[in-house]
Amino acid sequence: MRLTTKGRYAVTAMLDLALHGEKGPISLSDIAQRQDISLSYLEQLFSKLRQAELVSSVRGPGGGYRLARGSDDIHVAEIIDAVNESVDATNCGRGSGCASGEKCLTHHLWSDLSDQIHVFLSGISLSGLVARADVQQVAQRQHEKELAAQDIEQKIEIIGGP
Amino acid sequence: MRLTTKGRYAVTAMLDLALHGEKGPISLSDIAQRQDISLSYLEQLFSKLRQAELVSSVRGPGGGYRLARGSDDIHVAEIIDAVNESVDATNCGRGSGCASGEKCLTHHLWSDLSDQIHVFLSGISLSGLVARADVQQVAQRQHEKELAAQDIEQKIEIIGGP
DNA sequence: AAATACCCGACTGTTTTAGTTGGTTATATA
DNA sequence: TATATAACCAACTAAAACAGTCGGGTATTT
Asked: For residue range A22-32, what is the model confidence (pLDDT) as tens digits?
């Protein structure tokens, strides 16, 4: 179990899907704009999320991604594991001949704690996060901002588009 | 809150202190041998652990480090935070003008979850880890290994030391 | 005086992050 | 059927973090 900003990006993007994915697939460029993440980086992350069968994709215009399962059935631990690509658990099993548990003792000390963290994050679902009041507040603000941006775009179009 | 092998090293080393620190200060070279971590790297980590006032040091021969507080009063979250040097929380407050919470919304989404993880790890103390049966088993094995190593050293000395 | 062991800064090689570039392929729509 | 959209894909880059090394210092015990 590893926790970096990469996992944060993935969780944030999935949370965005859970918040906006009701009416159909969401394009990555939408998520990129709303959550301020580079589009190409999102593509890399979603490639992994798709391999892990956490999302499904629809190609072509109007396409995008949607959650592969219900938001109550997707948990934070899965998302983080999907983008962090397992990483041989610890640096054991290499040169030190750690087979049969003879050496490599530090490994056990940590992996035990790591398991606990994993169990903890497996208990937090996307719907659980969505239900939180503060998250809804943020989503609301993002929605208002989006509308404002669309409004500006329309006005530009009226003044004289390409 | 970040979770990498760096934090694992720090927690493991602190656990070693909790296990062996009863009879006096423990030298870093002892920990380096037992836990198979580079001595110089440990020095860097303990520099930070000392700044965070999680350990205190004794210089000179017979010196080393000891826990600054009781092992029931030192928690995993503190240790990890100490070596990961905070990292401006998230990448906000830089170019995007995230003051007053207007922008930088993704930040809130994540930091909320991050807080939960933090609270969770704040509930796990060193003494809590020490009390675990499997940890004691590992410590016992390490102790036996240590005795065996000392035995070999003695024999070498008898045969003809420097 | 000598050995121990903390303390400190600078340096190195490797891996991971984060992002870029430049495409190809599938598909809805006009 | 042409076009725009948006997923897909691979290779590349800059910057940071990780893990460790090196060469010194300083305090303290024996």
From this structure: 889 999 999 99
> Which residues numbered 77-136 in B keep a CB inside 8 Å of some CB on A?
90-91, 96, 103-106, 108-110, 112-114, 116-117, 120-121, 124, 129, 132, 134-135
For the record, the structure tokens of B69 come out as 């507080």
- Nearest-by-CA chain A residue for B118: A117
Q: Report whether pLDDT(A157) > 50.
A: no
Owner of token pair 């099993």: A93
Q: Are A43 and A13 in contact (CB under 8 A)?
A: no
Q: Which domains does chain A have, with CATH numbers?
A: 5-131 (1.10.10.10)
Report the DSSP pairing between strands A55-58 and A64-67: antiparallel
Partners of B72 in the beta sheet? none
- Give the separation between CA A130 and CA A15, rounded to whole angstroms: 7
Rg, C-alpha atoms of chain B: 20
Q: Which helix (H) or strand (E) holds A84?
A: helix A76-84
